Amino acid sequence: MAALQHPRRGQQNRQPTPTDVLEMAGMTRTPGTAPVSVSFCAPQNRKAILWAAILASSMGFIDSSVTAIAIPAMRSALGATLPQAQWISAAYLLAVSALVLTGGALGDRYGTAKVFVIGIWIFIVASLGCALAQDAPQMIAARAIKGIGAALMVPGSMALVSRAYPKEERGQALGLWAAASTATTALGPVLGGMLISWGGELGWRAIFAMNLPLGLISVWLLRNRIARDATQSTTALDLPGALLATAGLGLMALALTSRSELILPLGAAGLAAFTAFIWWEAVSPAPMIRLLMFRRRTFAMANLMTLALYFALNGVMFYLPMTATSVWGVSALEITAAFVPISVLIGVMSAPAGRWADRFGPGPLLAIGSALVALAYAGLAFFAEAGNFWGRIIPLMTLGGVGLGLLVAPLTAAVMADAGDDEQGAASGINNAIARVAGLIAVALMGRLAAWSYGAVNDPSLPGFGVPGSTTAHVAATSHAFALVAGIAAAMALVAAILSAVTIRGGKPGPSA
Asked: Per DSSP, which regions of 382-488 are E strands?
């Protein structure tokens, strides 16, 4: 990128002049004038940077959400076994979960835009590999590489927006970013259903190929629009912290996607590594994450809410299409009707919700939005066994979309509100790590619970949860299992509502660390 500047030749050993000092401090001047601040970008370039961040983060968010509805078609085309099909989904989430903290820290250390663009290039090359995969191992490997790119790209996208906009405008800008990101997560099954229904194998391959133009447009939008992407920290990268965080998150995520006998040893190893990471961050002279950030009430509670809400959201979004298409007689195209209201409502409501959060604080919006999501998912649990897709499920998903539209932008703004300019990547990395880990835990844990519920109330000889079938016992067992998933999701959303009502209140920042 032309705007990412480096020291000029022959200047490394000379003494800095007053102009150099001003430039290093983010200021410049002409003779006879007062110093003028040089921001991350010029005001007229903010919208281009915002759209670059939206396009890139949309690629990352849509990738995991579209998998749920595309897995059956991919499994058939690639000849994948059931464990391989699970790893097609898990490989991406595992890589993102393990590396997203490191990705945020790399952006703070080496430049937000630099690391962001590197992540985009990795992501779009790996997307091409997914589109061209000829068997399950190739697809699994390509999706793991995509996860690495997303770990660099997604936290960088949030940090770009935070650095580009002043604090008084940041809530609305982050609201637009969050609206697009979450709406595209919900839009994933819509696109997947349409392309698979109309294009067959070519359709699901086109899903991955779409990332190429999106990524290239994002890189083009950033070109020559970053005025100052200098290193945000003068200290060395916290390599021990990065390795421990990667090992801890990776092993714990791997435990949740492995065979039953491996859960305990892998989980224990992951917990030990993550405990060592926390200890190291507390004693390191240059930590990757300032643990004192969690002393700020808004930051800590917003991340805890993220864990609860994304657990609920991912559980329902992954297992609803599976249930509806396997036993409720809903086609891959029809299931998109459950996700269109979410995409539309988040897209329409998040920008005004971001403005309301700037004006009134995020607390009330988070409480109301989370309560509506909890009510909607409780309704899904109550009506699941009736299987009334158009009469009950669609209206309830619409109610959940209203709740998400109210809370997505304020939640993002609350996470970033207390972070300084040198902490934007770290704060974004923490929040994205929590969201990804929540999604991975939800898909893995809810799947185990759904399989247990399916087998606990029926004949073990039945096909299994998520397998297409029309017998009365199979339909009842699958619907009962999804009711358990939706009920747990409702409980987690209710926890988020209580947390926001009791602790965030008006959204005022907690004590500064």
From this structure: none
Question: What H or E segment, with its residue span, contains residue 130?
Answer: helix 112-132
What is the 8-class DSSP label of residue 16?
P
Contact (Cβ atoms closer than 8 angstroms) between residue 319 and residue 446: yes
Structural contact between residues 89 and 176, judged by C-beta atoms closer than 8 angstroms = no
Residues 6+ apart with CB under 8 A from 295: 510, 511, 513
Computed on alpha carbons and rounded to an integer, the radius of gyration of the chain in Å comes to 23
Helices (H), 257-339: 260-283, 297-327
pLDDT tens for residues 362-400?
888 899 999 999 999 999 999 998 888 999 999 999 999
CA distance 147 to 414: 26
pTM to 2 decimal places = 0.72
- Tokens found for residue 383: 């009506």
Alpha-carbon distance 136 to 85, whole Å? 8
Q: Check residues 132 and 36 and name the one with the higher pLDDT.
A: 132
Q: CB of 62 within 8 A of CB of 184?
A: yes
Contact 143/257 with Cβ under 8 angstroms?
Answer: no
